[in-house]
Write a structure and sequence with these properties.
alpha/beta, 780 residues, 25 helices, 6-stranded parallel β-sheet, 16% strand
């Protein structure tokens, strides 16, 4: 077959060899999912479509190849019109100039433009026609993924009804799968007519299913079904295949299935996309699980949940297992093919993302030593992703970070960026370079934090959510917080303010996240004492100091000026100076009360502070002095705190009064609009920022703007309490003497954020209800 000019034979990167080093690939999340008549475009949501300079970041990370989208829906959205090549022209040309090999994806959890669908009999030919146009325009591209995860897309679109065409039956599922797999075959034919050497890098989620004994038959069926994409493409689905009869009963004809045997298109690289939710567990004991995961097969009703969440032994090498299974299944008759991890991503806290990526890399090395031809590991969702918590069915703006956080006015690199760059270096590919916290590589990547001393949460006891005989709706969100492991090994997070709301919350969250910590009381550390600060840092050698101590009585500060300034201004500066001398990261807190409320718009980090009260002035002065003493310090401004782990804040006290019978009014100030801040949210994000090495001032508050009265009104309604006794009032009615701004709503232009206030309130009410039930049960 003759190739077009400009087409070269593939380089050594595509030739199988276990001696070839494992490559590091990267990719942006690029799903283009249709729900009814609306398309959700991750490339647009993350802003990647507007930032040509993103491509240079792939090269800076040390990647050798990029899974890159030239999506059918974006490029040829209108039938009969010329394709819109501008995006692809710029991006692929830049990738080529940087020496990065694109693995071009044409369809990613999509159903094609509006002039086709997964049920369209002409879908394969239409996809092939588009693939031919792409190949002709970019004849030098030598690797393609025409359709990402055909089986997964068929399940979600044809069996579960989540994505277009929203089928809920076996026939729709089978037709969606058939059309996608035929589309892969015909697209590769079209591409290879232009470039005979083009490789097929096919991806699929190959999650395994386990079950109770009663449902072993269903688990067995699904464990055969997970291989269908590859079995079809390899021509292995014949009359002896375990699912032949099922596919025929679902409406596929033997003649249609035989087309794959007559015209197979085996992948050159079998790509494995593996997530923490990929492996499932089926259980008919419905009382143990929330209703939202109840389902069935017509024969038995059962719950379908993540295997990691039930009472099973944690799997030590999950990535190695699925890579080895895939390799063993296909390598014997496709000796030139290899396998790769084509998506590695975890939506979680930063250190858990570290642990997930490290575990994947270790398992790849483990497989290579065992003779498995693993070609690459792919760091996926480089720019994060939106709304995967609802499987892309809702537009909530729920964002999970990747290597970069896209939410600010400019990209913000997270701590994953230096870790990825370390893995890309030849000297960084041995496990020791990221496994031992004493190495310079680990210090550079983690800021000295011993994140690899603890296993990921999926190996720890708190992973077990569905253990009780009957499901408690609050158990899911609270079981994790009830487990307090040992304080851990390695350099700790040093936390001041042990008895305060914030300090105790940091200790609790560090324990949950497997981060070693040390929390100190005022008697153990006077933050305004140079000697105390010096001695404590020498004795504990922390990698991060969190100053959660301070003077918090806003009205009392008007007559206690000296003490307020000592605790909020002098003390943080003393600690910051001591940390700066030792190169230790420092985190402290400020307040929305540094602003005068004259602005109608939410305040951002660069707005000028003009405090009205002594307390606000102490925080504003403290910001200045801390950054002067330690330019690398991180200062978090937030709104008033509320949280589930103490009942001394305004919301807890007011709701308690509303729950009591009587006619006494419950008053709340209605002259100050603010952003209340949920303690678990701010603490978790603050620790992420500490690991990221963020510096300067960052605003962290839940997304919402309410007065105290409106806040209580909203919370009471969500709690099902009568609001008839609620009354708005003025500051003087409450005995407040400190002036407060009329408006101190916060937002951030630094690329960080917290969930909405409504979401935070929902979680707060759920958790406090659970805590109250537990106290009653224990007789406390």
């Amino acid at each position: 077959m003759k190739a077009l000019p400009g087409v070269a034979r593939p380089d050594a990167a595509w030739r199988p060899s276990v001696q070839t080093p494992v490559e590091l690939w990267v990719g942006p999340e690029c799903s283009m999912t249709r729900v009814r008549d609306t398309y959700k475009d991750q490339i647009a949501l993350t802003g990647h479509d507007k930032r040509d300079e993103d491509v240079d970041l792939f090269a800076a990370m040390g990647a050798s190849a990029v899974r890159y989208p030239v999506l059918w829906e974006r490029t040829a959205p209108v039938w009969g019109e010329s394709p819109r090549w501008e995006f692809a022209d710029r991006r692929l040309a830049r990738l080529r100039s940087l020496g990065l090999r694109p693995i071009v994806g044409l369809l990613h959890h999509g159903s094609g433009p509006s002039y086709t669908s997964l049920l369209d009999a002409q879908f394969p030919k239409k996809l092939a026609a588009f693939a031919a146009l792409v190949a002709e325009r970019f004849p030098w591209v030598d690797a393609y993924t025409p359709v990402n995860e055909p089986l997964t897309t068929a399940r979600f679109s044809g069996l579960y009804g989540l994505w277009y065409p929203h089928g809920n039956d076996d026939a729709t599922f089978a037709r969606c799968l058939f059309n996608q797999c035929r589309g892969v075959v015909e697209a590769m034919h079209a591409i290879r007519r232009v470039n005979p050497f083009a490789k097929l890098v096919q991806t699929e989620d190959l999650g395994r299913v386990r079950s109770t004994p009663l449902l072993a038959y269903q688990a067995s069926f699904e464990n055969e079904r997970r291989w269908l994409t590859y079995d079809l493409l390899c021509g292995r689905v014949n009359e002896q295949h375990p699912l032949w009869s099922s596919l025929v009963l679902s409406g596929l004809t033997p003649r249609e299935l035989d087309t794959f045997q007559a015209d197979p298109c085996p992948p050159d690289v079998f790509g494995v996309n593996h997530y923490i939710t990929s492996d499932r567990f089926l259980d008919e004991r419905l009382e143990r699980y929330p209703v939202r995961i109840h389902g069935g097969n017509g024969r038995h009703a059962y719950a379908d949940t993540e295997a990691v969440r039930v009472e099973v032994v944690p799997e030590p090498h999950r990535f190695a297992r699925v890579l080895t299974e895939t390799y063993d299944r296909y390598h014997s008759f496709l000796p030139d093919s290899g396998v790769a991890l084509t998506e590695v991503h975890l939506a979680c806290s930063r250190e858990e993302q570290f642990r997930w990526l490290r575990e994947a890399w270790c398992d790849v090395e483990f497989c290579r030593k065992a003779g498995v031809d693993v070609r690459a590991l792919t760091v996926w969702s480089v720019f994060g992703a939106f709304d995967w918590n609802s499987l892309l069915t809702r537009n909530e703006g729920a964002y999970e970070t990747g290597v970069f956080d896209v939410r600010g006015s400019s990209l913000r690199a997270t701590a994953l960026a230096p870790l990825v760059a370390t893995l890309a270096k030849p000297e960084g590919r041995t496990l020791n370079s990221i496994d031992k916290e004493t190495t310079s590589e680990s210090n550079a990547v983690c800021g000295g934090a011993p994140v690899f001393e603890e296993k990921g949460w999926w190996h720890r006891p708190e992973r077990l959510v569905f253990q009780s005989r009957r499901f408690n709706p609050s158990h899911l969100s609270n079981v994790l917080r009830s487990v307090v492991p040992a304080r851990g090994r390695g350099r700790p997070v040093l936390i001041t303010g042990a008895t305060g709301r914030l300090g105790s919350a940091f200790a609790r969250v560090c324990a949950l996240r497997g981060l070693p910590y040390r929390v100190l009381t005022r008697s153990e550390l006077d933050i305004a004492s140079e000697e105390d600060a010096r001695n404590v840092l020498a004795a504990t050698s922390p990698w991060l100091v969190v100053n959660a101590a301070g003077y918090g009585r806003v009205d009392k500060a008007e007559s206690d000026v000296a003490m307020c300034l000592r605790e909020n201004t002098q003390g943080p500066a003393v600690l910051a100076r001591a940390c700066a001398r030792k190169g230790i990261r420092f985190l402290t807190f400020s307040s929305d009360l540094v602003f005068d409320g004259a602005e109608a718009e939410p305040y951002v980090e660069c707005d000028v502070t003009r405090p009205l009260s002594v307390y606000g002035r102490s925080k504003s002065l403290g910001e200045h002095d801390v950054l002067e003493a330690h330019p690398g310090a991180l200062i978090i401004r937030s709104g008033a705190f509320f949280g589930p782990w103490d009942d001394t804040h305004f919301l807890a006290a007011a709701l308690a009064r509303l729950r009591c019978e009587g006619e006494t009014p419950v008053e709340a100030f209605d002259g100050h609009t603010l952003s209340p801040t949920y303690v678990p949210d701010v603490v978790n994000v603050a620790l992420d920022l500490g690991l990221d090495g963020e510096r300067g001032i960052v605003h962290l508050a839940n997304n919402g703007a309410v007065t105290w009265y409106a806040f209580l009104h909203l919370a009471a309604g969500m709690a099902g309490l009568s609001r008839s006794r609620l009354q708005p009032c003025a500051a003087l009615d409450l005995g407040w003497c400190a002036p407060r701004p009329r408006h101190s709503v916060l937002c951030s232009n630094r690329g960080v954020g917290l969930p909405t206030l409504g979401d935070a309130l929902s979680r707060y009410l759920e958790e406090t209800t659970f805590n109250e039930h537990r106290r009653l049960k224990e007789g406390v």
